Amino acid sequence: MNVLFEYSPHPRLLQQLAKGSLDQIQNLTRSVRLWALLRWLYSGKGYISLGESFTYTDWRKAFFTETHKDEKQEDILKHQDPNCACIKTTKQWLLDCGVTLDEWQYSLQKEIQILNADIEKLLEERLFAQVRKSLQSDFDLLVSRNCLQRVNNIAGRKKYYRRLENLPFSHNSDNLTTGANLTSKAQAYVAGALGMFSFLDPSYPLLAEQISEYIDEDNHRVFLYVDYVVPESSPQQDAVDEVQSELQKIWDSGEITPVLLTYHSAHQNQIKECIVYPVCIYFMERAKYLCAYGSTPKDEINWYKYRLDRIISQRLESLNWQDPRVPQLLR
Ligand SMILES: [Zn+2]
Which of 174, 190, 211 is where one domain is finished? Predict the structure, then answer.
């Protein structure tokens, strides 16, 4: 049974064929040409027109009309035979293959940076109006992309090619979107974000794994960094929880007063008494911090983030606003 290539030119598939980033218009044009070439080679027409193994010249004779010349660019541009494949624009290739132009343009612009004007230009281009040298190197690129095979056991200087029985594309390359209508980039992002928030809910890493399953593994990998902010209970962890709950009580009381805390500053390698107005607690890089305004370990009055596990006071002391220890700037 002959293998057919009927994939649509989804950006992910084009990227697999391309030599370099699709952001470069010439790479995009070339990969669209390679896609069209595959559609032709692996079609009923392609199998009828070309034997099992074939040379570039065999292909040229089958693909273009008899009067087509391929040595000089000027001859190609002059060729006006309406039946010749060199006349067909990219747009015609896409339409003949049943591609909806609007959808294709949309999927392309979701994945790569490309202006409407550049797409328009590409659509109007005569896709195969290329000299022999370029087209021959297309065949070699298809070989390197595992879409064609070189046949080695034929004597002579000519290069022979053969179609393969398996092509390196997965079926879901044809899906423009998967999951909740997210691009693969967005899915990778969501999966990564869920992994980061795993400390909030242990089911997040599982969800992240499920999402990342849909992502085309040839092009995207998601590395989940799963780390729990709340490890097994430890005396240090208990102390952090205690500080947090004391702060919580202060905030819940509705009357927030300055607090006195004893802080071990790693930067200064000193233990400092700080009087601060507590604002909030947040997570950063696997630790909890108190964001507060007041006297800092650097002996300034400023905003500072105090790592909760470095607050070493037995308990936080709430101070009256009139307390002389409260710095004037804080009042
Ligand atoms: Zn021609």
Answer: 174
